[in-house]
Amino acid sequence: MKLAGVELRRIGMPLVAPFRTSFGTETERDVLLLRVVTDDAEGWGECVAMSDPLYSPEYVDAAADVLRRFLIPALAGHRSLDGNAVGPALAPFKGHRMAKAALEMAVLDAELRALGRSFARELGAVRDRVPCGVSVGIMDSIGELLDAVGGYLDAGYVRIKLKIEPGWDVEPVRAVRERFGDDVLLQVDANTAYTQADARHLARLDPFDLLLIEQPLDEENVRGHAELAKIVATPICLDESITSARAAADAIALGACQVVNIKPGRAGGYLEARRIHDVCVAHGVPVWCGGMLETGLGRAANVALAALPGFVLPGDTSASDRYYRTDITAPFVLENGHLPVPTAPGLGVTPDPDRLDAVTTGTEWLPV
Ligand code: OSB
Ligand code: MG
């Protein structure tokens, strides 16, 4: 394929309810979409960077800037562009993995649409539907939390993840266990809100039989997680720290994680996400697919990834209506706690033009 140009499109998607984590509260998802145009086909990419650099160093304005100034121009001269060629072409530029991932996703989508092959088939999916969990934000009260969790369990979600932070950890976990019982698959996510000095406190979660505790410590404190794992019996799962297959290999070798959350955006793309999966499978480390409040585009690709054999735990691949009243694609709807893996070429979904226009806050055409 030869690249003709890329459209950057910024959209604002109001969330059905505010989503509070230890790093902030989100009420509207500010998303950068990419539409790559080649001589063969068009493809869509979704950048998972958030408005502010609070989860990761990336943020939407920076992603748009690095794409415009460096990443898209780097693909300009390429005579035989395909998904596999994007990573090496962008490798000279340090970091900016979410921006790179979005561009690779869009090129891969164009390539696969041209070939008539799905993301699932390309990545190596072995399932046609995936079990889904849901990530539940920090609430103002335990009562509100129990109402939210009850609603998600009624909707069929097979696993609950509670966001935690100092002051909102043992009590909400205890309350959910007391109300909904010991059979609910339950885990927590701290988004780096604790330090190693909190080890004894985090061990107080052990009696609640959690599947895992996700990223309690700073992204760069991999060794700290290995130390924590000696004190806390609940399995440690890393999210923010796992920025590549190499980072996964190092964290596993150090004993810093017993489980890995795989997010393609954080790792620079779906192809690197698959390599993380492969490293984890080779080490017997279970993985699950994380989420970044994606629209139907990113969700389609995540669901395809989650259908790979090493994804043995339910992911944060929730249905469209957990996030948005109206998605930009045909909505993903939960069926018995599962989402179907798209089978049509490429992502298998396309944005609805009217819906897209209704949420667009800006577009920019970048010819190459
Ligand atoms: O840490 O997993 C996280 C959302 C935004 C940024 C980071 C995280 C999350 C979630 C929600 O937990 C996952 C989802 O439902 O998309
Ligand atoms: Mg997380």
Measured on Cα atoms, how large is the radius of gyration? Answer: 20 Å
Q: How many helical stretches?
A: 12
What's the oligomerization state?
A: single chain
Number of domains: 2
Low-confidence stretches: none
**Whole-number mean pLDDT:** 98
Taken in chain order, the helices and strands follow as EEEHHHHEEHEHEHEHEHEHEHEHE
Task: Please outline the major beta sheet.
Answer: 7 strands, parallel
| Percentage of β-strand residues | 15-25%
Write the layout of secondary structure elements.
Elements: E1 3-21, E2 24-38, E3 42-47, H1 60-75, H2 83-90, H3 97-115, H4 119-123, E4 129-131, E5 133-136, H5 142-155, E6 159-163, H6 170-180, E7 186-189, H7 199-203, E8 213-214, H8 222-231, E9 236-238, H9 245-254, E10 259-262, H10 270-282, E11 287-289, H11 296-305, E12 338-340, H12 353-359, E13 360-367
Parallel strand pairs: 5-6, 6-7, 7-8, 8-9, 9-10, 10-11
Antiparallel strand pairs: 1-2, 1-13, 2-3, 4-12
This protein binds 2-succinylbenzoate and magnesium ion.
Magnesium ion is lined by residues 189, 191, 214-215, 239, 261, 290.
Describe the overall structure.
This protein is an alpha/beta fold and 368 residues long. The protein folds into 2 domains: 3-116 and 351-367, 2-Layer Sandwich (Enolase-like, domain 1), CATH 3.30.390; 121-340, TIM Barrel. It contains 12 helices and 13 strands. It has a 7-stranded parallel sheet. β8, α8 (222-231) and β9 (236-238) form a beta-alpha-beta unit. α2 runs antiparallel to α3, α5 packs across α6 (170-180) and α9 runs parallel beside α10 (270-282). The chain is globular and about 60 Å long. The site of 2-succinylbenzoate (OSB) has 11 residues, from loops. Magnesium ion binds next to loops.
